[in-house]
């Protein structure tokens, strides 16, 4: 089972966080949350839209920091997990969860201060359309991540139940240009693929993460190893009013 059918299954939603963010996967969770906060903070009082909010990891985190946030996802099972997470964190009053299609966002133009999507574009069937919609409803910031086509992810990609679309930097730049967005920051991380970290215990995960980070920060002549071979990139853009 692949794609939308896999993603919307009840058992996938129930086990999503525990399978991906336990063991060494907790380091992935930490890094992704840092990337979101780096791009969007400060969020207190800001109106934020999260596309493909899944189980609400980021939705609840931003609500705890004072954001007024809408979480949109195609999976009702994932949204149920998000609502429970929001209730447990005591921030349900700051979040509205909606089931919807990212290709046809049910909001007017310039409705949010920031729009972001994590773990989304590798599954996007029509990425240009999704990007255009994100840009349309944002007044300012658009933030997202991609899996990259010059990384170990190329090999790991064959093992995923859904398969992933891998992007080059030039492809991302074309998406941004087509949506009227201007890139303001990009960060590249994880030479080792996510699947590796999920398989190793906490006790050794940090040692591998430290090595991964050191290698990613290394340079060969004018080239950054991380920029060239990282499996994940985080992209921060802004609506180009020019």
Automatic annotation (TrEMBL):
Its taxonomic path starts at: Archaea, Methanobacteriati, Methanobacteriota, Stenosarchaea group, Halobacteria
What is the protein named? Class I SAM-dependent methyltransferase
What is the enzyme's main class?
Answer: transferase
The organism named in the record is: Halobellus rubicundus
Give the enzyme's EC designation. 2.1.1.-
The record's annotation in InterPro entries points to: Methyltransf_25, SAM-dependent_MTases_sf
Q: Which controlled-vocabulary keywords does the entry list?
A: Methyltransferase, Transferase
Instruction: Please give one Gene Ontology molecular function term for this protein.
Output: methyltransferase activity
Q: A Pfam family this protein belongs to?
A: Methyltransf_25
The UniProt entry's GO biological process terms, in alphabetical order, are: methylation
Record domain Methyltransferase: where:
48-139
């Amino acid at each position: 089972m692949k794609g939308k059918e896999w993603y919307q299954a009840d058992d996938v939603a129930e086990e999503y966080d525990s399978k991906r963010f336990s063991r060494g996967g907790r380091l992935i969770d930490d890094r992704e949350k840092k990337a979101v906060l780096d791009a969007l903070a400060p969020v207190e009082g800001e109106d934020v839209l999260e596309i493909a909010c899944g189980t609400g990891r980021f939705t609840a985190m931003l609500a705890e920091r004072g954001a007024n946030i809408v979480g949109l996802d195609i999976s009702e099972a994932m949204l149920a997990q998000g609502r429970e997470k929001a209730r447990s964190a005591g921030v349900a009053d700051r979040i509205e969860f909606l089931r919807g299609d990212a290709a046809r966002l049910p909001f007017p133009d310039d409705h949010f201060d920031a729009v972001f999507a994590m773990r989304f574009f590798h599954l996007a069937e029509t990425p240009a359309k999704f990007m255009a919609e994100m840009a349309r409803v944002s007044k300012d910031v658009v933030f997202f991540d991609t899996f990259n086509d010059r990384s170990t992810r190329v090999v790991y990609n064959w093992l995923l139940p859904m398969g992933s679309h891998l992007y080059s930097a030039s492809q991302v730049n074309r998406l941004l240009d087509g949506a009227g967005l201007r890139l303001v920051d990009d960060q590249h991380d994880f030479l080792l693929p996510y699947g590796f970290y999920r398989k190793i215990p906490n006790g050794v995960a940090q040692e591998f993460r430290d090595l991964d980070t050191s290698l990613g920060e290394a340079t060969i002549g004018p080239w950054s190893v991380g920029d060239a071979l990282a499996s994940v990139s985080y992209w921060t853009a802004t609506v180009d009013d020019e």
